[in-house]
Amino acid sequence: MHLPTVADSTAADYRAVIEPLRIKHGAKSISHMRRRHVLEIKAEMAETRQQANKTLKRLSQMMDLAIELEWRTDNPVKGVKRYPTNPDGFHSWDEGEIARFYEVHEIGTPAHLCMTLMLYTGAAKCDAVRMGKGHIRDGRIVYRRRKTKKNPDGFEVDIPIHSYLAETLSHVSADAFTFLETAKGRARTAAGLGSSMRGWCDKAGLPNCSSHGLRKAICRRIAEIEGDVFKVMAVSGHHDLKEAQKYIDKYNRKAKADSAIESLPSGGNQERILANNPARFARKSGKILKEKDK
Prior knowledge:
- The chain has helices spanning 8-25, 35-44, 49-68, 95-104, 110-119, 125-128, 163-169, 190-203, 211-225, 229-236, 241-251, 253-262, 279-293; strands spanning 136-137, 140-144, 156-160.
- It is mainly alpha-helical.
- It folds into two domains: 8-68; 95-254, Intergrase catalytic core (hpI Integrase, Chain A, Orthogonal Bundle).
- Strands 1-2-3 form a three-stranded antiparallel sheet.
């Protein structure tokens, strides 16, 4: 049996990009596609640059498949430059934005519950919508991340429940199957949760914030406080050390700078305690010793 190479949520993202291409260009022969056609597709999406870049990426994958199937001998997408976008991707919530959201959406509301669950677990949307009381074990939340390429079964995340998250979860109905189910008792979808969060953020006046940014926010917090890449990975479920290290490199710099400055000598004679003294100090010290010997 052929196992899927991507999670269901990722496959849905792929379809969302490919479907518009199929509707507009599906009747055309793939062997007739040229570089100019790729440039035209890119230009038509200039107003949505991130989506344009996603389209070019998926289109390139389709051209690679066409080569493998011997439908064509080249990939016309290769070499077409992507639009410049924010290299950091989704915006990571800062503490002011988190506080603002909580001001508008009080405890007991679906918005507050969603915010707190994702902020204190680092769960992605596809995992957050599945979480329920069945994932609580001895005061901990234990679940497997669905969105992972290297492990079809998902990486297990096992974290203690923060006291504020525990307080928030106490407001969930006792018979709720999942924490984030709708008012009608239905499970939310990842796409539906994303749409709801968009509306909640807009109501709080936070246009740059999103549900994915909450996952980044907990990684930022851990990096700022602990500065330990493995602690970030243990909570977020990252399997790629390089991806987790990015949070340490970006958000722990202030703490490292504070530590570095505090470790510097205070001046005057304290400079002499440095291991690598300049040569002039070393020569001067030797001269003093010789004079004392006389």
